[in-house]
Design a protein that fits this description.
The structure is a single chain. 42% of the residues are buried. The strands form 2 sheets. A 6-stranded parallel sheet has the order 1-4-3-2-5-6, with helices on both faces. Strands 7-8-9 form a 3-stranded antiparallel sheet. The chain contains 10 helices and 9 strands. The radius of gyration is 19 Å and the shape is globular. α6 crosses α7 and α9 runs antiparallel to α10. It is of the alpha/beta class. It folds into 2 domains: 175 residues, Rossmann fold; 101 residues, 2-Layer Sandwich (Pantoate--beta-alanine Ligase, Chain: A,domain 2). It catalyses: (R)-pantoate + beta-alanine + ATP = (R)-pantothenate + AMP + diphosphate + H(+). Belongs to the pantothenate synthetase family. InterPro entries: Pantoate_ligase, Pantoate_ligase_C, Rossmann-like_a/b/a_fold. It is an enzyme of class 6 (ligase).
């Protein structure tokens, strides 16, 4: 497995690949877990060449967020990449991605704070500008045929699809299923922040989403009623021995991320998204209403 540490080296590596080879690309911030390795497995299965990146992107963090403390586990991450078939891993320095004088950023409407008040875009106003910018820059340099992201970050999936579509990048966005712990907690690098007591209640996030899908399956089609069921179940987490704050419960169109009011359409067009602070861990999850 080749280790690439500069933009120039990445360009040389990409140019060296046979023109007929298909390239899969899995961008990550490191702290890899089974959710990431499931994407690496898909990339290996689908392509001649599988490329990953590890970059804790400073543009995705606002002041006061966890940029400094975000888990950085390079040796373990490289080992996981190698064991899941990556041919190369790109580990750029911040100055490679954002050189001195850098001032060009990308924003997708579906990630903006104005699009939906109950969303990551509203809760973290700078976040998706950083996501859209780094994904575009990495994709331009790596020139993959397929780019892999996880469904756990529903709005991020929408932002990546929008950037690829609107800029006209010649690649396919592949969304991998959310990988979960035994109690349903979506795997996330930030789960490492949970204490024992907090971890014991964190599975309540998925339990609340399942309550929402249960009433949906029984025929409920009023958006606020579905949101209300999820909020009520999330409230059950607060009475335990853990610091829990529900940040938002959203039921929105999975492409535009516009909040749905009134009757909800089925067929996988809408998604219920939640964000909950459990101690220092920001837990996000979602479920598609099929």
């Amino acid at each position: 497995m080749k280790i690439i540490r500069s933009h120039a080296e990445l360009l040389v590596y990409r140019a060296s690949l046979p023109a007929t080879s298909t390239v899969g690309f899995v961008p990550t911030m490191g702290g890899l877990h089974a959710g990431h390795t499931s994407l690496l497995t898909l990339s290996r299965r689908d392509n001649d060449i599988s490329l990953a990146s590890i970059f804790v992107n400073p543009a995705q963090f606002a002041p006061g967020e966890d940029f400094a403390s975000y888990p950085r586990t390079e040796d373990a991450d490289l080992s996981l990449c190698a064991s899941h078939g990556a041919d190369a891993v790109y580990l750029p320095r911040a100055e490679d991605v954002y050189p001195a004088g850098y001032e060009t950023y990308v924003e997708a409407g579906c990630g903006g704070a104005a699009r939906n008040a109950r969303s990551e875009g509203a809760s973290r106003p700078t976040f998706f500008r950083g996501v859209a910018t780094v994904v575009l820059k990495l994709a331009v340099a790596a020139r993959p045929h397929r780019l892999y992201v996880g469904q756990k970050d529903a709005q991020q999936c929408a932002v990546v699809r929008a950037v690829v579509r609107d800029v006209g990048l010649p690649l396919e966005v592949v969304v991998g299923e959310t990988v979960r712990e035994g109690d349903g907690l979506a795997m996330s690098t930030r789960n490492q922040y949970l204490t024992g007591a907090e971890r014991s209640v964190a599975g309540g996030v998925w339990a609340a989403l399942r309550e929402g899908t249960a009433v949906w399956a029984k025929g409920e089609r009023d958006a606020e009623s579905v949101r209300g069921v999820v909020r009520e179940k999330l409230a059950d987490m607060r009475g335990k021995d853990a610091n829990v704050e529900v940040l938002y419960v959203s039921l929105c169109d999975r492409e535009s991320m516009r909040e749905v009011e009134g009757t909800v359409e089925g067929g996988g067009k809408c998604v219920v998204c939640v964000a909950v602070m459990v101690g220092k861990a920001r837990l996000i999850d979602n479920v598609v209403l099929e």
